[in-house]
Amino acid sequence: ELQLVESGGGLVQPGGSLRLSCAASGFTVSSNFMTWVRQAPGKGLDWVAVIYSGGSTYYVDSVKGRFTISRDESKNTLFLQMTGLRAEDTAVYYCARGAPDNTWTTPTYYFDFWGQGTLVAVSS
Amino acid sequence: EIVMTQSPATLSVSPGDRASLSCRASQSILSNLAWYQQKPGQSPRLLIYAASTRATGIPARFSGSGSGTEFTLTIDSLQSEDFAVYYCQQYSHWPPSFSFGPGTKVDIK
Fold it and tell me: Which residues between 51 and 70 in chain B have a beta carbon less than 8 angstroms from any beta carbon of chain A?
């Protein structure tokens, strides 16, 4: 059975750091496209970062230089290291697995399975 | 940056009726579009990918159409469990971009 379990959220002061974890079961994180998506309270969904199976990473402009997505093959876990946190980073953070859309020569990825999320609150 | 818009923001529908939700991209995304359903307190669930392909386990009353910049999610014969917020998302290959629309809330009329 597929499972993604996020942890590591909490209350942090502006400028602080947190590391989110996403433990996977039922599939191998390092063999898949993975992503972090966040949702501010009462708002919509925003993708934050992605990591391809080959290791390439990409970020939304608002978190570049502050957040780092990574994975640990031995733990089958995805991470999001967040530094320089701001009030606007307050959100539920979801990890998700990407599935390839092979319609075109180069596959693109939609998000086929999501975890339940972990809340990050940035406030003094 | 590709910007996604959705309309209407809220759609009031009676159980058993059909709902049509619209999604527009600021530039052509071919068929690189997914639809997600989110209920209160839950994580999003994939409904449709490649604009018109239902994900595993999704009932046939959900259908997607469109290409380029204009897309539609249609829900036939709305069931009580279908009242939720629906998001469209584009997923571009290059540069990698996965922006979501603001969502359409489908509520009971």
Answer: 55
Residue A107: what pLDDT? 83
Residues of A with CB under 8 A from a CB of B: 35, 37, 44-47, 50, 58, 94, 99, 101, 103-104, 106-117
Q: Amino acid letter at B84? A: A
Q: What is the mean pLDDT of chain A?
A: 96
When scoring B98, B100, B104, B105 by the number of chain A Cβ atoms within 10 A, the one with the most, hence best to mutate, is B98
Q: Are A44 and B92 inside 8 Å of each other by CB?
A: no
**CA dist., res. B101 & res. B7, Å (int):** 9
Asked if B19 and B72 touch (Cβ cutoff 8 Å), the reply is no
SS3 A89: helix
Express each pLDDT in B39-49 by its tens digit: 999 999 999 99
- At residue B49, the pLDDT reads 97
